[in-house]
């Protein structure tokens, strides 16, 4: 997704207060909360409520049906009031379930934290111990523990806690393992903190939400397991009531007097259901992975919500033309205008560089073309993208799917993230080919092999069998380029394809792309932040700032004499090899957030040449001749730029 | 050269290795092999090389986050490795580290105040008003407004977060600061701000920098001397201008030719078919041999050592120093 949307997302403080609001929006969780609160309040208030003595037997009143003899829920085989036993029993069940959860969470989390943080041998010993506990079916293990300790509620509690320790330990160890290698832990060591202190003050706060999530999803289980042991007669001992033992007692008269077992059964069902619904709700609110939009489930294509289709301005010979393209993100009532009207055209065999800082909208521009911006929250709000004369935004979902990878292909920054880790690169290439050109597998394999040879991977036939992790970073990116070229696309969109690579590999990949576009006549839209890379491969360059193109023209001319002050500063603030004495001119301030763009020029606040006129109205991209255009009222003269 | 602040002597670091229970040897990666370097007080020594060349491992050993398998490191007149084991806090008072990813190096659940107070409390023993005064001073040093102290890391841009990382490193008033790719995660317009700040702090506080980077143009701008690492070894070391103007090692030349420079058309660099050396099975002789245009038969059998002089290089076929 666009870095723009993330970097300009609303401040986290507002999000944190929204946790309750989020939970309140989940109706099932609210229902669960209601049930749990009600049951807990009633259980807590049991001594105060006008209930009969739960243990007082009355043989004369045995097995009364609900409502008979003043007993609201009837009586059991010994004539004890079921309502009273239910309330007191729920009290016991909840208390045991909660205590077992707390014990299991405390012990399990501690083991997980220590194992994950210490690593190595400590981790090995602790986790093998946990594995041994897990090797037994849990109910068998609980039975064995109770058999050794003897029946009784407290022993059942210990058994359930022990059985659930591995669950916490493994969960927490996994999270801790990731955290313990993070840089902030190293930083804390260099701040003079001892290992136990780091574990408690640096790692634990980051693990706590996971502990809470795990607890909220296991409490229900624990209550169920308590009931299970009591049902078998190993938990609560007579005359004490608990939901499980009530069920067990009712079993004997199940067919003659079903209400004796149905009442506690229903109580267990409602209580556990309520807890689980609430637990799921809490997890959805707290889990950062779900929070970051995994639940919103983007649709297969960016939504198009444009009011008008612009009149096509024909650029002769162009294969892809973007015209006034606008892409917005709607997040929490705010509209982030990530792309605010971009005009761009590419001719066959041409390489156009799209340059800008993170958040300038260059990636979103690239993703919008084939509808790859996630919806929600993204949408295309205006403009058009003409590919060989047809408007991409007007096509049906099926048509756009057909064209993805066939007419327009993408190469992304991180090749390891783009390739599927479980399939060989050969299989992935074959899939890419056959998705658009149905052909026999052997034929497709030959074509894939040719592609690998085309991107100059040595030993292509052998490398077909390699998994992505077996290749170096440069090799992986070549495979991605080969995949992009699989169907001879007319446009290749490369989003920072060399940023993650070493300089020597970058030079190879750039040379490869330059050669391929000349040989195959593909147009390349090359996204980068590095003017050196632009200079190496791009014929033309477009500089983006705050979602709009501020300057465009032939690469050499723009590098020699930038017309927009932003371009000028962007070039001046980067050290250049061979010119170590050049003073680095930092650009003061930060780019504006795209949900509150100022009127006039977005760069005015950081611009040394800004005047009052720059802060009003809309500033147009003005043609300067020679294919150059600049969005500035007072563009830099060539003499000024040279001097 | 004056008495060096840091003296690295024959340091190696091997990951893995050893034997299984059945006495079968386990694979070992030689991340750093027999590196010897001096860092003079007040200088900026750059370490360049591609990913996996061992530069970060070397940097981590200098602050005690990792220990060498062989060799010695001295900081001033103390044994850095022994001190790091015995009293990590004492070492942390003298050698500090700035991390590559500024956001990841700040605990997301702590305020900036809590993050900066940790070194002041645990390393310097500052409490109360003294600590508060030092906090304000640190924030002023890195040009951040004091009201940022009560915010959380995710509220900061990369450049601001990196300044907090620098402030934390400066908190115990160290003599040596190891900068591990301090600007490579930042936007280009922010890079210059941070580089200029580092330059200013060095001049004002008399710091010594060890500057790790893969970006040769940044190294050329900020460093006095530079060491080029390849496959765990230093292959060339010397004054930065000298090396960048007249590289003696073919690997340094390849690196310099590979950097895309605005306005310069890329030349032919190297054939893509070259195989990189396998870290589990280092080749005999020079590790760069397979990629080297100058390679001769001797390179496959004898490993070249750094020669003498102001600009030493480890290469049999290197041109003589000028």
Automatic annotation (TrEMBL), chain A:
A GO-annotated cellular component: plasma membrane
Membrane topology: Peripheral membrane protein; Multi-pass membrane protein
Key words, A-Z: ATP-binding, Cell membrane, Membrane, Nucleotide-binding, Transmembrane, Transmembrane helix, Transport
Subcellular location: Cell inner membrane; Cell membrane
Every ABC transmembrane type-1 domain range: 90-279
Name of one Pfam family that matches: oligo_HPY
Transmembrane segments: 28-49, 92-118, 130-150, 203-224, 260-279
InterPro entries named among the record's database cross-references: AAA+_ATPase (IPR003593), ABC_Ni/Peptide_Import (IPR050388), ABC_transporter-like_ATP-bd (IPR003439), ABC_transporter-like_CS (IPR017871), MetI-like (IPR000515), MetI-like_sf (IPR035906), Oligopep_ABC_C (IPR013563), OppC_N (IPR025966)
Family matches, as Gene3D superfamilies: MetI-like, P-loop containing nucleotide triphosphate hydrolases
One GO MF term attached to the UniProt entry: ATP binding
PROSITE patterns per the UniProt record, alphabetical: ABC_TM1 (PS50928), ABC_TRANSPORTER_1 (PS00211), ABC_TRANSPORTER_2 (PS50893)
Span of domain ABC transporter: 320-571
Gene Ontology BP term (one): peptide transport
Protein family per UniProt: Belongs to the binding-protein-dependent transport system permease family. Belongs to the ABC transporter superfamily.
Protein name according to UniProt: Peptide ABC transporter permease
Species of origin: Meridianimarinicoccus roseus
TrEMBL record, chain B:
Subcellular location: Cell inner membrane
Domain of life: Bacteria
Biological-process GO terms, alphabetical: peptide transport; transmembrane transport
Protein name (record): Peptide ABC transporter ATP-binding protein
ABC transporter domain span: 6-256
Annotated GO CC locations: plasma membrane
Sorted UniProt keywords: ATP-binding, Nucleotide-binding, Transport
Matching SUPFAM superfamilies: P-loop containing nucleoside triphosphate hydrolases
Gene Ontology terms for molecular function: ATP binding; ATP hydrolysis activity
InterPro entries xref list: AAA+_ATPase, ABC_transp_ATP-bind, ABC_transporter-like_ATP-bd, ABC_transporter-like_CS, Oligopep_ABC_C, P-loop_NTPase
Keyword ATP-binding applies: yes
Matching PROSITE patterns: ABC_TRANSPORTER_1 (PS00211), ABC_TRANSPORTER_2 (PS50893)
Protein family membership: Belongs to the ABC transporter superfamily.
Membrane association type: Peripheral membrane protein
């Amino acid at each position: 997704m666009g870095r723009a949307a993330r970097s300009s997302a609303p401040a986290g403080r507002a999000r944190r207060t929204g946790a309750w609001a989020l939970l309140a929006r989940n109706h099932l969780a609210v229902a669960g909360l209601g049930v749990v609160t009600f049951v807990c309040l009633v259980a807590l208030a049991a001594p105060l409520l006008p209930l009969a003595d739960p243990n007082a037997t009355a043989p004369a009143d045995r097995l009364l049906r609900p409502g008979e003899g003043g007993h609201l829920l009837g009586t059991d085989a010994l004539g004890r009031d079921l309502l009273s036993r239910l309330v007191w029993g729920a009290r016991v069940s909840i208390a045991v379930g909660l205590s077992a959860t707390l014990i299991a969470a405390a012990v399990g989390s501690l083991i997980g934290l220590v194992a994950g943080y210490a690593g190595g041998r400590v981790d090995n010993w602790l986790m093998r111990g946990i594995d041994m506990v897990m090797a037994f079916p849990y109910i068998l293990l609980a039975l064995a523990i109770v058999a050794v300790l003897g029946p009784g509620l407290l022993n059942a509690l210990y058994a359930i806690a022990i059985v659930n320790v591995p669950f916490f330990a493994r969960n927490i160890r996994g999270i801790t393992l990731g955290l313990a290698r993070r840089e902030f832990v190293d930083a804390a060591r260099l701040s003079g903190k001892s290992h136990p202190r780091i574990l408690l003050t640096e790692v634990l706060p980051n693990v706590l939400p996971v502990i809470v999530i795990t607890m909220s999803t296991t409490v229900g289980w624990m209550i169920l397991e308590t009931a299970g042991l009591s049902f078998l007669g190993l938990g609560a001992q007579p005359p004490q009531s608990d939901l499980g033992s009530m069920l067990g007692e009712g079993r004997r008269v199940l067919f003659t007097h079903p209400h004796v077992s149905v009442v506690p059964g229903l109580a267990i069902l409602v209580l556990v259901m309520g807890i689980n619904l609430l637990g799921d709700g809490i997890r959805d609110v707290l889990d950062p992975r779900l929070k970051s939009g995994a639940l919103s489930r983007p649709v297969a294509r960016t939504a198009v919500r444009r009011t008008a289709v612009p009149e096509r301005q024909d650029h002769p010979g162009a294969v892809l033309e973007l015209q006034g393209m606008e892409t917005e993100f709607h997040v929490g009532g705010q509209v982030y205008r990530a792309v605010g009207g971009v005009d761009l055209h590419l001719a066959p065999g041409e390489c156009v560089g799209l340059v800008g800082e993170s958040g300038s909208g260059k990636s979103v521009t690239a993703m919008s073309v084939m509808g790859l911006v996630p919806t929600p929250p993204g949408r295309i709000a205006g403009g058009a993208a003409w590919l060989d004369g047809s408007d991409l935004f007007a096509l049906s979902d099926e048509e756009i799917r057909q064209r993805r990878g066939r007419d327009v292909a993408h190469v992304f920054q991180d090749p390891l993230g783009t390739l599927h880790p479980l399939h060989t690169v050969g299989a992935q290439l074959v899939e890419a080919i056959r998705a658009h050109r149905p052909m026999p597998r052997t034929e497709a394999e030959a074509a894939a092999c040719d592609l690998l040879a085309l991107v100059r991977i040595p030993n292509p036939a052998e490398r077909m069998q390699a998994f992505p992790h077996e290749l170096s970073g440069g090799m992986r990116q070549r495979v991605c380029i080969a995949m992009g070229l699989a169907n001879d696309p007319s446009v290749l969109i490369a989003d920072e394809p060399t940023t993650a690579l070493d300089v020597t590999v970058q030079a190879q990949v750039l040379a490869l792309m330059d050669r391929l576009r000349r040989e195959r006549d593909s147009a390349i839209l090359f996204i980068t932040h590095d003017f050196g890379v632009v200079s190496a491969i791009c014929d033309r360059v477009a500089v983006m700032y705050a979602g709009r193109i501020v300057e465009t023209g032939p690469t050499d001319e723009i590098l020699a004499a930038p017309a927009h002050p932003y371009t000028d500063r962007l070039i001046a603030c980067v050290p250049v090899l061979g010119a170590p004495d050049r003073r680095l001119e930092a650009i003061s301030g930060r780019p504006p957030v795209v949900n509150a763009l100022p009127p006039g020029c977005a760069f005015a606040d950081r611009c040394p040449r800004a005047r009052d006129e720059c802060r009003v109205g809309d500033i147009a991209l003005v043609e300067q001749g020679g294919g150059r255009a600049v969005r500035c009222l007072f563009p830099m003269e060539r003499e000024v730029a040279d001097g | 050269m004056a008495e060096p602040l840091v003296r690295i002597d024959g340091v190696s670091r091997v990951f893995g290795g050893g034997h299984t229970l059945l006495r079968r040897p386990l694979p070992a990666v030689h991340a750093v092999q027999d590196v010897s370097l001096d860092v003079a007080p007040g200088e900026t020594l750059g370490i360049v090389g591609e990913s996996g060349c061992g530069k970060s491992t070397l940097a981590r050993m200098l602050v005690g986050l990792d220990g060498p398998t062989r060799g010695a490191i001295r900081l001033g007149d103390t044994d850095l490795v022994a001190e790091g084991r015995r009293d990590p806090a004492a070492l942390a008072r003298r050698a500090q580290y700035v991390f590559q990813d500024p956001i990841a190096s700040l605990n997301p659940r702590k305020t900036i105040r809590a993050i900066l107070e940790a070194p002041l409390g645990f390393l310097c023993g500052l409490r109360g008003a003294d600590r508060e005064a030092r906090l304000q001073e640190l924030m002023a040093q890195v040009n951040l407004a004091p009201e940022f102290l009560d915010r959380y890391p995710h509220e900061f841009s990369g450049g601001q977060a990196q300044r907090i990382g620098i402030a934390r490193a400066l908190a115990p008033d160290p003599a040596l600061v190891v900068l591990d790719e301090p600007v490579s995660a930042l936007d280009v317009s922010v890079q210059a701000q941070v580089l200029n700040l580092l330059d200013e702090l060095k001049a004002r506080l008399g710091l010594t920098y060890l500057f790790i980077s893969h970006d040769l143009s940044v190294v050329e701008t900020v460093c006095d001397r530079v060491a080029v690492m390849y496959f765990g070894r230093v292959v060339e070391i010397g004054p930065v201008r000298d090396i960048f103007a007249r590289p003696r090692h073919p690997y340094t030349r390849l690196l310099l030719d590979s950097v895309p420079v605005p306005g310069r058309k890329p030349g032919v660099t190297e054939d893509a078919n070259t195989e990189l050396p396998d870290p589990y099975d280092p080749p005999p002789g020079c590790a760069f041999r397979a990629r080297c245009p100058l390679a001769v038969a001797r390179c496959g059998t004898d490993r070249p050592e750094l020669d003498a002089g102001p600009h030493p290089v480890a290469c049999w076929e290197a041109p003589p120093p000028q």
